[in-house]
Amino acid sequence: MNAQSSSTEPVSSVHQLKVGLEGTKPPVWRRLVVPSDVTLGSLHDVIQVSFGWDDMHLHVFEDRLGGRYAPPSDLDVPVLDEEKAVLAEVVPGVGNRMDYTYDFGDDWLHRITVEAVRPARYGEGEFVVCAGGRQSMPHAEDLGGVWGLAELLERFAAGERPSATVVRDGGQEWLEYDGLHDEVLAGLHQKGFDPSAFDPSELTTRLAPVPLRRAADTRKRRGKQHDGREERHVPAGTYRCECGGLHPVPGSEAPFAADDRPDVELSLSDVLGAVDLRPPAVRLPGEAELAPAVREVPVFMAAVRLGRWCGGGRELTPKGLLRPRLARQAVEEAVLWRVDPEEWGDAEERAARLAKVRSAGDMEPLELPWEWALNCGFVDVEGGRARAGDQLPDEGDDAALLAAWQGAMVGAAVELSLSFPSLDRLLGGLSPLPELTEEAPPLVFLMLLTAYGLPDGEWLDVADYLTGGMEGLPEGPARRLVWALLADQYDDTAGALELFGAAERDGHEPPTADAAIALLLNGLDGPRGGYETPPLGRIRLTALGRSGVRTLLVTAGVPAPVVGSLDRADARELLTALDSYRSEADAEAEVAGWLAARTVVDAAVQVVDACDGTEPADALRRLHAPRVLASVLKADRGGRAKGVLRKAAVSKVTGCSHAAASMLRRIGEPADKEEAWGLEWMLVDGALPFARGSEENLRTRLLAGPADGRRTLDQVAERADDLWRGGHPHAGEVLGALADAVKPLDKALAKRLRKAAFKAGSAK
């Protein structure tokens, strides 16, 4: 509904991508400026032209967290449709990366890195521009991957000219070469190929005719993602993590077979929906406070210094390790010993100990910084040398350091807390363990989300959380083994987050051995399975850790508001966020800040427009609209906001007209020609967000209300016989849920609601 134009259309944006062909030496890469709203299927076409491919083979995109995108009909494994995946949603920000693999036989791996996201300049956004690159590409189709390409270019550089056989047939003649490599090599000489000559403008010209397929309405898509699965296009029986992967729905009728189950992670949006867990609004320090905290994370900063120390290149051994002399040099010059100053702080003792070490792999101060630098992309290894990686942040740039830390922390948290360990081991064949792990939710990951939502300073008891999460799984040896696996997974995850400065633990004892293996060795029988799991203690996230988890949630498209941060948000985001505020005072302050940033007319239009739709998430926004509209009307001196509501109330736009009419009734000025059953529609709508949850939660909502006023239950009872007449598309579902919820309170009312539900179904 557009009662009045509330703002100008958002400026279109572009992504500047660096697309590099991995394994090539010298490196082959292209810098491409691409409209942000193109589909990945369209980006596939762009890459094909940019590297001279013929689109004769299968391909797949994969983001940093395991999400795979391709034409669904091409592959026999679950993938997301690349034509329904938008570039800006898969890699939204600077530093985000994904891979594109072409030809699963030759495995041409292209690494895609977002270098910049900015508003489109004049002439941009309608086609792809090549802004730079290195090395021309010969026609490399079916050459055998990067090794075959390297061999071809070596022969070309050596001046080798293959001989050909002249074939004559039917008055025609042509040359035949001994294999494809010779044929391509001869063609390079004929064309005067120069591998170092690359012309970005020439590629831009060739890219101009490539049709760009855009998302139908990216702003609408992004809004609906908060609701769940409609826009995700996930294969049946699976659900997708916005961290990337496809997994079987717990308890699904069609889970992956244990032997075939891909090594991907669980779905954030669906897990949240399944457990009815909505992250609350939290308080977070600003960047000025968080960034200095990153500088206090020893291993992370050591990895940054190590990346800078590698600079233009440091020589590696054939095993991919630094030469011992260089490793000792790195410990000193990159100050890696600060990771454990108590152990390595004495300079003379450190020099003596390091002198005795004969391999960088045994050099303790180097071990963790080297691993982190590689995992974070601060160091790249290529051609027997270690160089500063593309992801290395400027050590003097607080914002860059914080963003790099958040990205690294998110990757570690997802990898450790969502990859259930049993299926990566021989334990996966122990019946009925696979069945139990299919039913068990991703408890360690959910634990992090629960810790994220705790009030500042509060701790989460780990053993209690795991015990509650396993409720419903049958007792027995296999359940004890699942518990042990979860304990191991938690210890790995929490230990990593401690190193990141993201979490604090208290009262835990590190396990002396792998709990699951110890159970198997000592026997699964007995009250504790022959093995006593060490105390798990309690955990809480630091402010820095909470910022990292929020980065994950935001990247996933999950509302994760920070108190005091929504002044510039659109109304849909504001209304969605208000449901997660614990404090009424915080919510009122947030609304006041939001209103202060716009006129009352603009605010009224935006709020009413945000009330469209008929799904549960839409209804949830409408529940919070009166709070904002009341503040709008209070600030409205000239009555213009009321004019917006009156116009909207008779617009017949589903949701918008109902929200506006409801607000006018609240202030005693009902709209002219208002729909006769508008109040009945709104009563059904108000219950919709809770109808698919537990009966207890719905019953609590019905009983809520002022002590001296009318509860929702009283309004439902008054109009129960007519609620079906409102024409709400979910009336049958909601009335049935209401009947179940009120049955323990009022059986007669439950019967009336059940009858109304039947009438709603018959009226469709």
Largest sheet entry = 8 strands, mixed
Strand order of the largest sheet: 5-4-3-6-7-1-2-8
Q: Terminal Cα separation, in Å?
A: 25 Å
The number of E-state strands comes to: 18
C-alpha-based Rg, rounded: 30 Å
Layout of strands and helices, then pairs:
Elements: E1 13-21, E2 28-35, H1 40-51, E3 59-63, E4 68-70, E5 80-81, H2 87-90, E6 97-102, E7 108-119, E8 129-134, H3 145-157, E9 164-169, E10 172-177, H4 180-191, H5 200-207, H6 218-225, E11 238-240, E12 246-248, H7 268-275, H8 287-294, H9 298-310, E13 314-315, H10 324-333, H11 341-344, H12 347-355, H13 364-376, E14 379-382, E15 385-388, H14 398-418, H15 433-439, H16 443-453, E16 460-461, H17 462-469, H18 477-499, E17 503-506, H19 515-522, E18 538-541, H20 543-555, H21 571-578, H22 584-596, H23 600-609, H24 616-635, H25 640-649, H26 656-666, H27 678-691, H28 695-703, H29 712-719, H30 731-742, H31 747-763
Parallel strand pairs: 4-5
Antiparallel strand pairs: 1-2, 1-7, 2-8, 3-4, 3-6, 6-7, 9-10, 11-12, 13-15, 14-15, 16-18, 17-18
Helix pairs in contact: 3-4, 8-14, 9-13, 14-16, 14-18, 14-20, 18-19, 21-24, 22-24, 23-24, 23-25, 24-27, 25-26, 26-27, 27-30, 28-30, 30-31
